[in-house]
Amino acid sequence: MQNRIKEKWTFITGATAGIGKATAEIFAKSGSNLVLNGRRKNRLEELKKQLVQHYSIEVVLAPFDVRDREAAQQFLDNFSPPIDILVNNAGLAKGVEAVFNAHLDDWDTMVDTNIKGVLNMTRLISPEMKKRNSGHIINIGSIAGHESYPGGSVYCATKHAVKAFTEATKKDLHGTKVRVSMVSPGLVETEFSEVRFKGDTDRANEVYEDMNPLIGEDIAEIVHFMANRPPHVNIMDTVVFPVAQSSSTMVHRDNE
Ligand code: NDP
Ligand code: 8X3
């Protein structure tokens, strides 16, 4: 397969863990230069150290919160290479309470990160892509953007918003050569459930118990495949489950 991302600049939000980190690793392997974002600066530094040790690429760290539009703007004002690929991956779920019991702060965190973070980065980076008539925006959605499940009201709402925003972004860029894509995974074993259950590792582990979940690399490979298509090909969305999952709420456990 032809390597089309070598020496390009790929900006990955949420690269300190899970899908984002796996995406950084696979893009680095293909020779893409990287801008790595996340709030945990020490993790970004550690990842950069590993990647530049193994691959001849440039890695720039962007340790800001995607909710902070000014910080994002400030970073981009001081970063001159054109960004070829933007992977809007940073995101999270908080809690599984029903609508009538949920915590408003959790809702704010999810809306501000999963929706407004994606809006901020896309609004800031897409004008240059349009001007250059080249680029690729790849959003990490979720099966939660295709269906809704009890206890996931606002998380599902945010991922439905990502789906709508991805589709509208493609239409706004209609007629240009800028590509817009989305990946919609089911269960991926990352730090996602630990974050959702606020550090309760027992509850987090139960999510993946007695089944074989996806791993970050599975999704990273799809992002890499999308980015590496010939320039006339735009993959809009990919829904990907572990074999043991058939919907948000249908998960087969080996002990059943
Ligand atoms: P992880 O918790 O392992 O990784 C989440 C990443 O997002 C971390 O790098 C975290 O970095 C970053 N992040 C969170 N909030 C912010 C913020 N405000 N600013 C910048 N970075 C932030 O989870 P996943 O890898 O699983 O999640 C990645 C994406 O995949 C999310 O959008 C999630 O909704 C989606 N997804 C996950 C699925 C799953 O089952 N795991 C399934 C479907 C979709 P830091 O804390 O250092 O800021
Ligand atoms: C994460 C997968 O099923 O918890 O987006 O919504 S799920």
Question: What's this entry about, in short?
Answer:
By secondary structure, this protein is of the alpha/beta class. It is 42% helix and 14% strand. The mean pLDDT is 98.
Strand order of the largest sheet: 3-2-1-4-5-6-9
The CATH class label is Alpha Beta
> What is the tally of helical segments?
8
Structural class: alpha/beta
| Content of β-strand | 5-15%
- Number of separate strands: 9
Shape: globular
Instruction: Tell me which CATH architecture applies here.
Output: 3-Layer(aba) Sandwich
User: What distance lies between the first and last C-alpha atoms, to the nearest angstrom?
Assistant: 41 Å
**Main β-sheet description:** 7 strands, parallel
Order of helices and strands: EHEHEHEHEHEEHHEHE
Average per-residue pLDDT, rounded, comes to 98
**What name does CATH use for the topology?**
Rossmann fold
How many domain regions?
1
Spell out which ligands are present: NADPH dihydro-nicotinamide-adenine-dinucleotide phosphate, 2-hydroxyethylsulfonic acid
CATH superfamily: NAD(P)-binding Rossmann-like Domain
Which key terms come to mind for this protein?
256 residues; alpha/beta; Rossmann fold; 7-stranded parallel β-sheet; two-stranded parallel ribbon; 8 helices; globular; binds NADPH dihydro-nicotinamide-adenine-dinucleotide phosphate; binds 2-hydroxyethylsulfonic acid
Question: Which helices and strands occur, and which strands form pairs?
Answer:
Elements: E1 9-12, H1 18-29, E2 33-37, H2 41-54, E3 59-62, H3 69-77, E4 85-88, H4 104-132, E5 136-140, H5 153-172, E6 179-185, E7 188-189, H6 192-196, H7 201-207, E8 214-215, H8 216-227, E9 237-240
Parallel strand pairs: 1-2, 1-4, 2-3, 4-5, 5-6, 6-9, 7-8
Helix pairs in contact: 1-8, 3-4, 4-5
2-hydroxyethylsulfonic acid binds next to loops.
